[in-house]
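User: quick one - fold this with fe (ii) ion bound?
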Amino acid sequence: MTRKPRPRPPGPAIDTHAMIRVDHAGEYGAVRIYEGQLAVLGGRASADTIRHMAAQERHHLETFDRMVNARRVRPTALEPVWRVAGFALGAATALMGEKAAFACTAAVEEAIDDHYAGQIAALEGSDPALAETVAQFRAEEAQHRQTALDHGAEQAPAYPLLRAAIKAGCRVAIRLSEKI
Ligand SMILES: [Fe+2]
Ligand SMILES: [Fe+2]
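Assistant: Sure. Structure tokens for the protein plus fe (ii) ion:
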């Protein structure tokens, strides 16, 4: 008896739980970065701009929080790490000045843009709800990046170094939060 092989979906199987786990962790990290920035820059001219972005990050976080619960995703075990590391990154760059704070935002959003673009491509056709959410948030992250550039991110001291270090850190954080 011969059997036709089942058609396989192209590419590796998609682990949507890992995607939601890392996105949830990342949006939490983003909230903490902005909280760290505002702890230092709360009284400065750019504070309202930062507060606006922070409010959008809280909305991103709440959305993934609901998804974690609805789909019974195990959240990252690294939350205490991102709680401290996110705040520290935001506060430390803010202490270097407003432009360095915006350089941090620009670098983080660049890493997130790559990350979300990869997810959207991987999700094509398989999970429209998740793909739609990620695409919507990706557009807002791109606005954050533009806002940061408009506020002189690239004029921060040692910008290329800062940008490279922060992007590398984000990529490590992403890989860890997918799994752990
Ligand atoms: Fe976000
Ligand atoms: Fe953002």
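One thing worth noting: The pocket of fe (ii) ion (ligand 2) is lined by residues 30, 53, 57, 109, 141, 144 (CB under 6 Å).
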